[in-house]
Amino acid sequence: MRRVCVFAGSNPGTNPKYKEAAVKLGEELVKNRLELVYGGSSIGLMGVIANTVLELGGTVLGVMPTNLFQGEVVHKHLTQLYEVNDMHERKAKMGELSDAFIALPGGYGTFEEIFEAVSWGQLGIHEKPVALLNIDDYYTPVKQMIENAVEGGFMPETHKQFMIFADNPSILIDKLRAYKPPLKTNKWIELDR
């Protein structure tokens, strides 16, 4: 594992623990010699983690669509910035550059990005680990939603393993390194294959 994509809020959130977690995750990435891939913003939790990695001498690769440069305030001091045309290109480039995915707290954009990454894993498009840094139980409802999907018959029990949870950045990185994709299971219960 060389590069980790971190999805995070373009706002800092109201709980100071979110910012603290972004700093700690950035420190852990540098300590583990992992490069950061992220959305390229200088504000919100995105900016916090990028600045932390840069201040500690780490490598930060940003990916941002041109039309978001002003709204998300593009970071001007990255190791490398990839300018893309739209959100689809952004996610594809971030996925191409990364060996693993982590979500810090965030809103709709963060949710969409991490769920797309885990869906691609479930479909066999990649075998990269996907994780949620569950700060102050922010992602506990997602864990329950996954349990509900299994109980409701919408996915096999083994597919819970596609999403890793931890509330500590160091433990989360250890889990990413130890990740083994679940055994291939027929996703579609109505098909006999």
TrEMBL record:
Membrane-spanning intervals of the chain: none
First-tier enzyme category under EC: hydrolase
GO molecular function per UniProt: hydrolase activity, hydrolyzing N-glycosyl compounds
InterPro entries linked to this entry: LOG, LOG_fam
E.C. number(s) listed in UniProt: 3.2.2.n1
Keyword Hydrolase found: yes
Keywords tagged on the record: Cytokinin biosynthesis, Hydrolase
Family per similarity comment: Belongs to the LOG family.
Protein's name according to its UniProt entry: Cytokinin riboside 5'-monophosphate phosphoribohydrolase
Organism the protein comes from: Aeribacillus pallidus
